[in-house]
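Aim 2 progress update. The chain analyzed this quarter is reproduced below.
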Amino acid sequence: MSVLICGSLAFDTITTFPGRFAQQILPEQVHILNVSFLVPSLRKEFGGCAGNIAYSLKQLGGFPRIMATLGKDGTLYRNHIESLGMPLTDVMTVEDDYTAQAIIITDQDNNQITAFHPGAMAQAHLQMIEPNPAIKLAIVSPDGRDAMVQHARQLYAAGIAFVFDPGQGLPMFDGEELKQFIAQATWVTVNDYEGKMLSERTGRSLTEISQSHLQGVVETLGADGCNVYVQGVKTHVPGVKAEAVVDPTGCGDAFRGGLLYGLANGWDLVKSVTLGNRIGALKIAVAGPQNYTLDRTALGL
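Predicted structure tokens:
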């Protein structure tokens, strides 16, 4: 079964600041903020939520199908997707813009500051989702605002179960819009910060949000694991200790690949989240969002 991954494709420029942001930013001076971080290391990586999630799912033996946009500079990324054995059927090229770009600074505490240029992603709403018997599951991850709205609506109309994963795109939507996403989705995933924002804007706790048609709400807590809410019942799924903490970039996306693998194979939500936690812990030990490899036998798959 193919899993449709709606979201961004981006080139990531990843840098490391060997200090702490908290020691460089004076809270009482944020209204005149003017800081510079010396970043001795710099890497360029394939990234974007859709690309990262699809990479994770493909590594696990799943069948991801990316729906996203690339710009006129996107040939390298198209070749990369093809080399991984994933189809380019739903990857659109926008010839008059650049591929989305993320510039990420990570400090020694794994806090991150990101600047993001959407580029071709702003045209993602031009892609349409229609009923397709080969697609039974999807995810709406951070993308252009209109694309997230339209793709959620189209998946719902097509009867395709999907995970609503607003991520860093959540602040773009007000309470009523978020309620509409939730009404259309089958599952919702957020991190703890996003979960607080989602509750604040909708006026409902994650427990209350789960007491609906949803098959579950997942709240990720980083190294502490996840909380899973199903029909108002909260279950904590412990985190997995990483062998090394090298780079958190893309860990949430790696987790979502594991989650989707489980859901696509008919697993319950707790078992799917447990696999996601393991994948996130493996990813954080490797620099870059798409450079780790997974041993399916060791994972018991």
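The CA atoms of residues 142 and 168 lie 7 Å apart. The first strand starts at residue 2 and ends at 6. These observations will guide the mutagenesis experiments scheduled for the next reporting period.
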